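Record minuted for everyone:
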Amino acid sequence: MAKDSARRPPADNNNISSTADSETPHYHGHRDRLRQRFLQGGPDALPDYELLELILFMAIPRRDVKPLAKTLLGRFGNLAGVLNAEAPELEKIDGLSENAVAGLKAVQAAAHRLLKQEIMQRPVLNSWKRLTDYCAATMAHETKEHFRILFLNKKNELIADEIQQTGTVDHAPAYPREIMKRALELSATALILVHNHPSGDPRPSEADIDMTYAIKAAAEPFQIVLHDHIIVSRNGTSSFKTLGLI
């Protein structure tokens, strides 16, 4: 036994190390570097595709996700487009698991909730930029029109944020009587109307203007003030007050 042992060649430690290195996926080091850049430099240190990679890491631990991130951006345009894409559309992307889709939608939901909590129970007229950012984030990429009402109290604090109607790609109905009923239930003294244009054009249509005047007229007997009507699109927003329409 001792003689056979003496003839056995010594272990090649370099070879063992080389084999271990070859078995380590190449993207592991890339992930570590991205995390460090993000933690040290913040979100602005990463372009969209790398920030998207960072999100996908959590849902897809054993795969290089850079090609998938670039595919998603190519399909939906930018990071906002990816996060706002509907789950069925995301599920069509080859290699994107249900777990990954849930992860992307969770990031979207967290972002929307953060923006909403920044404006709830606060005087919205003093934080108009936050308000419009919230409206844009939640509605700009919708594929159907949604008609939203922001209800304010006498201090102009936002007390409720409700989608009243969901319509088609170019129309969402609004019913002044129902809006007044809900405002009275909430003891609201002011309103801000918000709806989106999936076409991408934020300019108000004649129908938008007529609808706004009808709601304003319905509110006046109850001494409810209509502060503004905001139209949101992926190409920007418009304000009836800024345009001189209210």
